[in-house]
Amino acid sequence: VNDPATDITLTPASVAENEPANTVVGALxxxxxxxPGAAFTLVAGVGDADNGSFNIAxxxxxxxxxxxxxxxxxxxxxxxxDDGAGGIFAEPVIITITDVNxxxxxxxxxxxFSVTAGTAVGATFGTVIATDPxxxxxxxxxxxxxxxxxQIDNSGNxxxxxAGNLAAVQSGLVVxxxxxxxxxxxxxxxxxxxxx
Length: 196
Fold this sequence. Notes:
- By secondary structure, this protein is mainly β.
- The chain is 0% helix and 44% strand.
- It is built from no helices and 17 strands.
- The strands form 5 sheets. Strands 1-3-6-5 form a 4-stranded antiparallel sheet, with no helix packed on it. The protein has a 4-stranded mixed sheet with strand order 2-8-7-4, with no helix packed on it. It has a 4-stranded mixed sheet with strand order 10-17-16-13, with no helix packed on it.
- Strand 16 and strand 17 form a beta hairpin.
């Protein structure tokens, strides 16, 4: 008597976001004890919500398009295995989309800071805010500072570079800077620094 499979496996069961169509997610397998062979297909039924996003070729589950982790990180397909001897079994299989650092940080626009004329060199007088949806912000760089008075550390802390006569400097100095997550760099954003 032929016994059908009672479980379907997918190894591995994850794929990175942004991969092209027909990327192999993993190899399909079953625990059929006595079937002469296994043919896998995607079928309708419970758990078939994302069948259209995948295809099967040569026993491998493959993507039918590119995925975005930030939009959706888990998909479910219904896979059927036919052992070639009348044994058929189907069940839902879950695929996980893994995150890739593919989005640059964003420096919050229109930030304004103030520094007093007597502030010591190296003393922090403000912290620039930047966000990144899929990674941590790891550093900042000043790309333009016509005054030459300012520096920024990797945490976004602004401080003075030289002991200057800030009282004689016109308020509303503009400093252009970027933030990075170690892979991607933000567009240049300007912050304003007022002398008080």
